[in-house]
Every structure is written in C-alpha cells, then in structure tokens.
UniProtKB/TrEMBL annotation:
Source organism of the structure: Saccharopolyspora spinosa
InterPro entries tied to this protein: FTHF_cligase-like_sf, LUD_dom, NagB/RpiA_transferase-like
UniProt name for this protein: L-lactate dehydrogenase complex protein LldG
Pfam families to which the protein is assigned, alphabetical: LUD_dom
Domain LUD intervals: 113-209
Amino acid sequence: MSARNSAREAILGRVRSALAGTDRLPAAGIPRDYRAERPVADLVGLFCERVADYRAAVDRVGPGGLPAAIVAAAHAVGARRVLTPTGVPQSWCDALRAEFELVDGTGIGTTELELVNAVITTAVVGIASTGTIVLDHRPGQGHRAVTLVPDAHICVVEESQVADDVPVALHRLDPARPMTFISGPSATSDIELNRVEGVHGPRTLHVLVTPSPG
C-alpha cells in the first residue's frame, strides 16, 4: 500500500471511529428548509438601506406618486432621451413624454442604445439582505442590453416583491428565464483601489420602491 493510500485509510478510519454509535443522517440528507425566512421588523426598510450601501439612489414612493417620482429621477440623472421597454405602464410613459424624448425599446440596436441617457424598468424580485434587484426580462423590463448600455437605470420595485434572502428570492424565480442580478451601479477598481463607475453597465442606479397595487 502506498503512503498516500495509507494516510487516506488512516483518516477514514478516524472518521468511522468518530461516527460509531451516533445517529445516522436521514436518507434524504440534511434538511435545507430549516431557515426559510428570518424575522425582520422592516423588510422593505432593510432592502432600501442595503441598496443605498451600494451607492445607488433609493426612494420610497407613496401610492399615486410614482409617475412624478419617475420624472424627478430622470431629471436627477440629467436624462434627455429615456427608453421605455414594452410593458411599462402607460401612466409612466405619459408623465415622461411631457418632458423627455421617449425611445421605444422594441428591437433597438446597440448604436441607438448609445444615444439613450436612461432606461426605466420594472423588476421581478428585490433581495433585502443584499440590496439586489433581479430582472428576468419579461414585459416591462426589456432585454438585457437595454439595462446595460444607457448611463442610468431607473428601476421600480414593488414592496411585495422584496424577499428576505437569496434562497427565498430564488424560489420566486423561473429558472427557464434569463436573469440579471443588479447590486448597485456598475463599478470596478484598479490596482490602487480607485473606484470607477459605469464600466460594465449603468453609472447610476435609481431604485423607486412603491406599495404593490391593490
């Protein structure tokens, strides 16, 4: 027997000795649902706090105030041309059209996207513990490129969409759909740790958190 096999058998022998007389694990293995959710007094508040930690702007908007808040966010990022993906509520488009040039995101190419200053989308999930928003690119969210090329991304998250943690969020997602996880504006740093934003995606992320309709 080689020295490697001898050492391996010695280690396994110690493991067997340590397990002798103990209860065996159930056939199904260790249960993974022992902590489905953690009790959080203000889940939405935690989400907003963690979003802000990533240097993203975040506002909680009351019922009926969303169109005006979207317009204010577009002004805050200095937008002139705003992309609205198919499926965005008409009330948002009407409010934006009064003050900005709207761009239809249907079938838009990279060259046209480079002329867009900001994109407004919905989301599918917000993750409180990490301050992450998730898009699965259904109507209202556009395809992945429209949230990566414009300099600013304004994203609306409903309070009911906020999940406690990543495992809870994953249970709400359809694994067959493409997904984009966004934690703050795009950023990187060089060897001297100088932070640079907007390298791989939007330089500015503005999250608007609103009560769910109904």
